[in-house]
Amino acid sequence: MPEVTLKINNRGYSLACDAGQEQRLVDLAHHVDSRLKDIASAGAATNEAHLLVLTSLVLSDEIHELRDELAAMRRDMNGASATTAHDEEIAEAIDHLAGKIEHIAARIHGVETQAA
Question: Which residues pair with 6 in a beta bridge?
Fold first, then answer.
């Protein structure tokens, strides 16, 4: 199992990962370190532990917002599917009514032709 050394807040952390996941782990660590530096530059933390907790909470909040957006998009897609099915039912009803109207018009036309 490969081991990767990551640098977060100027500290090295050695972590094992599945083969082929090394770059992904490095990329994630860069993202965490970047968000941590943003929070640190805002002066929001009083010490390193506090900074790490704040960073974890900010990242967790971002994940929850993305999950909520994904759920909303799925609901919208499901609503669109239901709307499409409803639209198809309406189109079928209109076609059925159009057929009846044509039949009535043909009967009226036949009656007019016979009367003339």
Answer: 13
Closest by CA position to 18, among listed 28, 4, 37, 34: 4
- The residue count of the chain comes to 116
CB 40 within 8 A of CB 50: no
* Residues in CB range of 49: below 8 A, 6 or more apart: none
Domain residue ranges in the chain: 3-90
Position 104 confidence tier, pLDDT thresholds 50, 70, 90: confident
φ, ψ of residue 69 to 5 degrees: the values are -65, -40
In this prediction, residue 96 carries a pLDDT of: 79
Residue with tokens 């967790």: 60
State pTM to two decimals.
0.62
**Residue 4 contacts by C-beta under 8 Å, 6 or more apart in sequence?**
14, 15, 16, 17, 22, 25, 26
pLDDT of 86 over the 90 cut: no
